[in-house]
Design a protein that fits this description.
single chain; about 550 residues; mainly alpha; two-stranded antiparallel sheet
Amino acid sequence: MKDLKVTELAVFAVLFLVITVMGFFASNWQSGGAKNKLESLDEWGLGGRKFGSWITWFLVGGDLYTAYTFVAVPALVFGAGAIGFFALPYTVVLYPMVFLPLVRMWSVSRRKGYVTPADFVRGRYQSPTLALIVAITGIVATMPYIALQLVGLESVLRTMGLNASGLAGHLPLFIAFLILALYTYRSGLRAPALIAFVKDGLIYLVIIVAVIYLPSKFGGWGAIFDKSATALAVKNPATGAAKGSILLTGNNQLQYATLALGSALALFLYPHSVTGILASRGRKVIKRNMVALPAYSFLLGLLALLGYVAIAAGVKPLTNGATGKPDSNTVIPVLFNNEFPSWFAGIAYAAIGIGALVPAAIMSIAAANLWTRNIYKEYLVKTATPKQEARQAKLASLVVKAGAVVFIVAVDPQFSIDLQLIGGVIILQTLPAVGIALYTRWFHRWALIAGWAGGMGYGLFLLYGIGNPANGKKHFGGSALPLSKIDVFGWTPFGDSPVQIYVGFVALIVNLAVAVVVSLVLNAAKVSNGVDETMPEDYHADEGEDSPPAPPPVPAIPGELS
């Protein structure tokens, strides 16, 4: 604690106190005078489903542009170079891809009262088992994403001097967990929705100052790129290969493309992304946001460039007092500490810290909704009242956050972005059951379960086999898979190729292949595919359109389009 930065910590603490107070008092915000406003999942977990365009803009933006943006992406660019920019095309192609599916998800969820993606799957296929699988997958995939946010906040506190050794080194992490847990428990989704206004304002301010002021200190962007190219070309003693490159190489171009596409497909499968959409007031709100949200991608690109600025500035990552290893996640906080006045560095740290807490809150709420609706009520207490559901969700949100803390301590990745990429491999396996099912029921429900099992099993097997010589990890060392490691029952179709690919993309292909084959067999055998409780018009309903009386259930027709 001898290097405690008092000024930065004071500014950080004041801003953190402001948003903490906002979080506690957010329970009365946007309530419309409703009584018992937090005693149902619709109110606690979805904010009453009445957020307009501006609130949705900040909520979804705060949900998607996180510590991943401010810490993880620049740290990857700092450590590996051009591959870190995969996040830019990923967010560019994302919105056109999910525009129509998300509108359909909102409509059918509004009509049927669905709170989670697993609710939709339960109604679409009359399959509690498939819904349970989707729910568990969503919860497990969300934990490393929450962990990434807490790592981002921990890196800021560590840079300000809270960097003790041993278990005490994780004290900042436990403090962050406590603050997040308390205001999320009290105010539900309204808390991060309100705080997102402050979070984005601070982030805009810091980015504008950083991308204008910092390059001028190091000779402009040309000099920064030249220094970065030289530094990244130096060989890593642990691997014998160059640390990275400011241009893609023949070995990582496929990884770059599949990372971008796989991440785009995965993002709105995450429960927290769907939660932000379902909290919107109507279809027009979602459409406006899908058109406007790409503006954040511009900011993401500027932030990624700060990784090169850190190289040019000669930044050295701090040593993590808890692990004794260099912490690459501190690169940007250290850059700000070295180059900004103390008071502004404190503002920048608060921007990162608040930018971590907002999405972490939304993620824990989304995971809690899954537990409550699709496990607790489905299997444990079928007669649970709305008040009991809300209470159960509040408790579950605490457990999910605690799980994220355990994940950080157990996995200890080289780059925090690996937490999100590993989560992406997991959540991608729900694409057929959730994303494709918004348009067709051609896939058989048992085939979807078989596909999920095949893709998930193979994906985790591949992740387990990926080591990282740079930090000595033998397993779960990243998500980049050499094609030479793809083995099909002893057949290696790509020989000894060193070209890399994103594990999630490979696992999804296996998932779809299994689901197609099993669906062909089961549909041909006329095995029951459950009863679809949704109707075609449900996918086009808008604000204020009440659900018509449900007709008698009709057996689903394989391949029927909605």
